[in-house]
Amino acid sequence: MIPVRLTCPAGKIYDLFVIDLIGTDSNSPTRDAGLELPENAGPVECWTNASPETPPMTRGPAALGDRNFRWFFLARAITLITGSMSSIALAFAVLGIDNDPVSLSLVLAAFTVANIVFVLFGGVVADRLPRALVIQACYVLDILSIGTIAALLFTGTASIPALIGLAALNGASTAFVMPAMQGLIPQLTTPAHLQQANAMISFVRSAVTIGGPVIAGVLVATVGPAWAMVVQVIGWLAAIPILALVKLPPPAGDGEFSLFADLRAGWGSSGAAPGCGPSCSPS
Question: Which helix (H) or strand (E) holds 44?
Answer without folding.
Answer: strand 44-46
